[in-house]
User: What shape does this take?
Amino acid sequence: GAVVSQHPSRVICKSGTSVKIECRSLDFQATTMFWYRQFPKQSLMLMATSNEGSKATYEQGVEKDKFLINHASLTLSTLTVTSAHPEDSSFYICSARTERAGDGTDTQYFGPGTRLTVL
Amino acid sequence: GENVEQHPSTLSVQEGDSAVIKCTYSDSASNYFPWYKQELGKRPQLIIDIRSNVGEKKDQRIAVTLNKTAKHFSLHITETQPEDSAVYFCAASMGGGNKLTFGTGTQLKVEL
Assistant: This one.
């Protein structure tokens, strides 16, 4: 249980194009999903909190017009990197919140990540 | 906001030895402290977590201790094996459903 998928796993695009990344909870419903960015050999930095049916909450310094988040259903959140530039190249990871089987504690499970390379 | 510091940044141990990674947090309202293991290019995997009403939790070779007064928590891995080699991240939040603030990570290398 508690499987989170992401698509695509890897994308290479030209500067100026937009890229959409999907995050799905496969066997549970997730009212809250989180989007992180991770640069090589660095920690995970939270970009935004995505709540189903409402606007995302962005962390300080993250441009909401550049990183568009849509959480249209309880199993799907999308991140669109608009007008991508080489400095946006990174590993983007989503996570979904759910109750853990066994003890029912509220915790986060991560997707496999999307490697974005902008040329 | 919350700030989590993690030490050491790299740790090399011999197979069979123990490894200890330490984290401190700043926000006394934080009450949930998970630990994640991340292999190169892969997703972070939750390996153990602890809540503020507990001082210690153990799962086979892995244990976590929490000192709320001092605002620090530690990961202990005993009888280390080569497959334990990875980057380990601690994190803190105000409840499991709230956003996580991650530490900077520890690259653990278990040598034969």
Notes: The mean pLDDT of chain B is 94. The CA atoms of residues 16 and 80 of chain B lie 5 Å apart.
